[in-house]
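Possible regression after last week's pipeline update?

I re-ran a chain I had predicted before the update to compare outputs. Posting the input and the new output here so someone can diff against the archived version. Not blocking, just want to make sure nothing changed silently.
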Amino acid sequence: MKRIVLILCLLLPTLLHAQDDGPRLTVDFPEDEAIPGQPLSLRLTVLVPTFMPKPPVWPGFEMPNLQVRLPERSTTPISERIEGETWSGITRNYRLSPMVPGRFDLPPQEVTVTWRDASGADSVTVLTTDAISFSGVVPDGAQDLDPFIAASDLTLTQEIAGDPAAMDAGSSFTRTVTAELKGLAPMFLPGLQHPAPVTGLAAYPDAPVLIEADERGRVSGTRSETVTFVAEGGGSGQLPGLTLRWFDLDDRTVKTAEVEAIDVAISGPPARAADPGWNRRLTIAAVTGVLVLGLAAWLGRRLAPKLRAGLARRRARVLASEAYAWRQLRQVLNAGGPAGLRQALDTWAARVDGADPRRDPEVRQALLSLGAAEYRGAGSPSTRPTALAALDRALRAARRRRRNPRRARGLPPLNPSG
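New output (post-update):
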């Protein structure tokens, strides 16, 4: 017994060390506050005592009002010395940017690691981070900014293509406003152009164009918005200037970027207002059309099975009719050969009311002649066409007699004698 206890005491440190020789996860998150739009650095490091045949499956850290970015070369291999042994690993860097002020609580996240264990087999281990909390904080003096924008630099420029002060009906011009900024992604900027109504002028905005750049972890970019204005009738007015207040991260002060207003003048008579009665009639017609289409779709769903079943029954009746069998028989005869003739003739005869037409004397004689033509010697001239023509005449005559038996018997004399 003492020997067993001694062996366990000797092996216990080795066993405990073996339990520690699995993958390890380190979370480095040095700061827990950021100005909205500015990034916080988060680094996850995975180490294994051997190597990883597959890259780890990293978490995404997605949540509302949080921008998660992976900078250039965000994932890199590393190695560390642990207890005299070289461990290999991978580190991943995240940039977490709160988009609004407030507290953010990220729940524990899983990192799945595939590594080669001591036995030489691939093993899968799931490591879990602790919960991570941080805040978006508005600096002093910038609490009244709405929306809140913080950058190292921000400028507004505009370009006008056309002459808005000398327009005629049908002419147009474009206004392009561009915001260029540093230290902030352009997605944090609000819409730049909100055209006020000008008499006789219609606005057609294009989709905003956002261009973003990331140079060594420093974000910059532009947001451009283009609106095309078309003159529809005489009038005048002014497109207002644009103002954007923002917080300068370098000077720690609130600054203003702006562009000037634009005067608009359109010569000619004012555009005629749309007839409200026409608009009302158009609306009624559109609603009526939608209701009719909806009713048709509903009826189609309800009646479609019945219609399909009715069509199937009708097709079955046609295929089982005497007229269809007769057409099939005529096609065989017109093909000029006896192939399939017996089957087609039997099918038609089975659907004829009354006596079997194959027992008709003319039909029987025509069939005998056709058989004789088929079995005539190879050196004899072929009489098949003549026999087929005779059979065709006999069959048509037999069908007429059965479809109109009174006519087949002949009409009575006009002046019968006593």
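Follow-up from reviewer: compared with the archived run. Helices lie at 2-20, 276-319, 322-334, 341-350, 361-374, 384-403, 405-409. Marking as no regression found.
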